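sorry for the late reply, my laptop died twice this morning and i had to redo everyting from scratch. anyway the thing you sent over, i finally got around to it. pasting the sequence first so we're on the same page, its 336 residues, then the predicted structure underneath. double check i copied it right bc i was rushing
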Amino acid sequence: MHRTVWLLLAGLVLVISIPLLLGGGELWRQLADFPPLLLALMIAMIFACWYLNAAKLKVLLAGRSGHLTHRQAMGVVMATEFAICATPGGAGGPLTLIALMKQRGMRPAQTTAVYAVDQMIDLLFFFTSMAALLIYIAIRAIDVRLGWMLGMPMILMATGLALILLIGRYHARAIRAIAGLLLRLRIRHDRRARLMRRLLVFRNALAETLKMPRHLLLAAFFFGVLHWIVRYSVLYFALYGLGRHLDWGWTFLVQMLSMAAGQLTLLPGGAGGAELSSLAMLTPIVGQHAAAAAILIWRAVTYYFYLIAGAPVFLYLAGRPLMRKIFKIGKQQLED
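ok and here's the structure:
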């Protein structure tokens, strides 16, 4: 737990220190001139993101968690996203969602299936968004290097989507292959049986979630798309408040690529990688000082605020025992 806490603190320091070091003294002047009303609007956008994610969660749960009000769903979303931001690789997010839904009578396999479908929706959105951006780059004859920057993430996401489709189509063969692999690894019979039982329960829960009426799945996808459009507009407004009018599509691309780079650092919130990559893409266009100020505001709204607002909600809904558990999971993930 202590190692994960130190990593979280290191990530928080990186989020601030990189823009401060590169922005210099000019950074403070630009921050002081930033319109307070625009900052309030950006905070309101984050609440809108939580509202949309709560709506998506309610659709995917389909009443299996009992009567869940929108306010309660927002609490679950805020606590889960706090855990994602506070742990390496977001490892604490699924565990938090499972624990909170278990309090409402849902089995872990059912919650895991809901989380898996949620991630599929995000994966499909990012894949289609990157495909649209590639077309945009080709039509507008923008720097070809951007196409190469998008190429690798698109290949990875296309591979992930293809694997999901293949496993869904041939799930029986996949389960038999996993059973054979466990046998070859000489895992004890009782443990092997327990693992296979959990896998089968998860498969059934996932199939149940995916068999929802098509209009409900489309509604969940719609809420997911709106959430990412709102969240990925924060950087655009940060630059606008600093007097830099940049194309919205460009700021969307910067955020997508920088957050993907941040995942490689394995620090909570992608600290370090997100800041450096976004600075590298923005500095040639808006200048180093403005880029540093915009990134500091952007990360304060989309990372610090998630921690500040989510922590009390997490402690109220889940409590300290679960916090210790998710930090322990984060530590194990780093050691692995």
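The CA atoms of residues 82 and 308 lie 8 Å apart.
thats about all i looked at so far, will dig more tmrw
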